[in-house]
């Protein structure tokens, strides 16, 4: 098992980030879908229920997604994995209690989120578990923000992500998504050209993301876990670069606005998955 703690410092407030991440998630989902692959939203709807422990009414948002990822895994995994084995299932319950039946659950506890991702084929032999804490006015300085035990602290690797200066693959680079070039007209933020922008920017908040990666498959466990860790690191970096460079798109939106965007995104994803070719098909031509 690999335990990595990623600390992503952002030039926004924690309240702004709540809207920004939902907007960026919907937009990024559309950008990565097509040719039979990408994100399928099965449900995205409000829910109400009575908490059996407290007998209080709970309200929140329930989302169930499938991530079809065949072209996004290395060839040596595709060669041995059966058809459909590379799909990931995600069930998200915002501001609610964990479901007993879901294969992937995300639930909000204030500014804290716990997510468990599993694969329908490998079940408990493959999991990506990450716990996230959003902290306002933080610059990544909290040494044990998620309060893990001493045994896990010894295994934990701390990785501070700099969205402006960390290197990314050339194939992923887009000038319009470069924080060192982007300037927000609405907020005046950016470009992030100061080498010490993480220490000097205002406003500021940090996402502390503790990630546990386990892939129990004899012969390829270590190699696969390392590949997944690298992929997670890359995804976090690219996602937060986009989130910053889309500031003028999400700034000022309300949660009600976001729900409307998510509803339209579901329709767009259903259409996009049926057209075009996947990256795997393109590489085989």
UniProtKB/TrEMBL annotation:
Residues 1-267 form the Phosphatidylinositol transfer protein N-terminal domain. GO terms for cellular component: cell periphery; cytoplasm. Residues 275-285 have a biased composition (Polar residues). InterPro entries: PI_transfer, PI_transfer_N, START-like_dom_sf. Residues 266-285 are annotated as: Disordered. GO terms for molecular function: phosphatidylcholine binding; phosphatidylcholine transporter activity; phosphatidylinositol binding; phosphatidylinositol transfer activity. This is Phosphatidylinositol transfer protein N-terminal domain-containing protein.
